[in-house]
Amino acid sequence: MTAALVPAAPQDIAELRQLYFEVYGHGYPVALGSDPAEMHRLITDPHCHWLTARRADTGELAGSAVVQTDRGNRVGKLVGLAVHPRHRQHGLAGRLTAAVTADALATGALDSIHTTVRMVTQAPQRVVARNGYRPLGLLPNAAEVSGCETLALFACYADGVLERRAPVAAVPRALVPLLEAAGDSIGIPYAAVRPLGPGEPETAAAHHTKAGHHTKSAHRTTDRTPIEVITAPGFVRRRFGEVFPDPAGAYVPLRTPNTVLTPPDGAFEIYADLDPAAGSCALVAVHPCLSAATGALDSLTAALGRAGADYVEALVPLSDTAGLHAFLSAGFVPGAAYPAMRRIGDRFHDHVVLSRTDRQIDFRTTAVSTPLQPYLSAYLTAWTSTYLPRHEVDR
What we know:
Elements: E1 3-7, H1 13-24, H2 36-44, E2 49-55, E3 61-70, E4 75-83, H3 92-106, E5 112-118, H4 123-129, E6 134-145, E7 147-157, E8 170-172, H5 176-186, E9 194-196, E10 228-230, H6 233-243, E11 259-262, E12 269-275, E13 280-287, H7 297-306, E14 311-317, H8 321-329, E15 333-344, E16 347-357, H9 373-387, H10 390-394
Region (Disordered): 199-221
GO molecular function: acyltransferase activity, transferring groups other than amino-acyl groups
Protein name: GNAT family N-acetyltransferase
C-alpha cells in the first residue's frame, strides 16, 4: 500500500476520532483522540506538528502522529501515534514517527522530544527505537487503557544536546541502579557520580533545600499536614499563569495543571495534572518552592488517592539532592531518567521521573524489549529497597 503523509486539517477531525476509536476503542486516554475542541486547537496551533497518512489510491485515513511542543522549555512530546488495523504491516508507524519527529526538530525550536509507549507488545518500542528514540525507563501503572498498564519512556535529541549536559557530582544511593541502567542502555556516563546515603551532604548547598530545610533521613515520612484539593480547571490555569509567568519556568513541560493542592494556611501550592478516570496524577510545579512542601508528601499522596489518583508522578532535577531524598522518603520510586531535559544557559540538566502507585504492579504481561531490561531490573531493585523490610532484602 502506498500512503501520502500530509498535515492534519480541521476537516479531518471526524475521521481522526474514528481512527482512534478503531485503534483503541473507548479506552484512549488522550484528549487529542476524542475531544474535538482540543483536536481543533492542536491542528491550528502553528507550533504543533500533526501528520496524517492517507492511502494514495482512495484517500482513506490510515494513520496519525502528533508532536506537541513547549517552546518555552524547548521540549516536545510525540503522542497519538496510531495506524488503522487494516493498514498495519506496511511500515506506516515508522514512517509517521520519522517524519513528524524530523519536522519538529527541523524548526530548531526543540532540544528533545520524548514519548511514552504502551508495553502490551514490543512493537511500539521497536518503532520509536528504530527512529532515533532512546530508552529512558519505565513508568509502572502509569496508564489505564486496557486495564492498568506500564509505559516506557523514550526520547530523541537535537544534535549536540547530550554533549552539553551539566555534570552532577553525587546523587541519593537509591538512584544508582537507574543511572547504571541509563549508562548500559544509552551510554550516558554516570560512573563517576558518587552515591549519597540519607543525610550525607554532597556540599553545603546540596545538604539543604532552597528554603534552608535539611533533609535528614530517607525513612518514610510521617507528617500529616491537612491538604485541600481544589479541582477547578479554569481557576487553576489562571492562578498557575500568575504564579509561573515565565514560559521557560521550572515546571513540567507539556502538562496543564487542573488541580491545586494546598494546606489550609497556604504555606505552599502544588499544581497537578489530575486524571481520575485514568487513576493518575502528575505533579507539575510547587509554589513557592519544592522545599516548602517536602514534609507533606505523604499527606499529598493520601489526598490524591482520595481524589481518585493511585498513581502519582514527579519530575525532579538530578542535581536536587534534598528534593530527591524527600520524594524517596515518601515512598516514590525512581523509574526513568531524562538526561538533558532542561536547558539553563548553555548547559542541559538531567532530570529523574519518580512515581508512587498504590495498585499492585504486575509485570507478567508486560513485553519488555532488550534495551529496557536494565530499567526493569533497576526499578525492581529500587522498589524492593523501598517497600521490603531489610531482613527480607538480605535473606
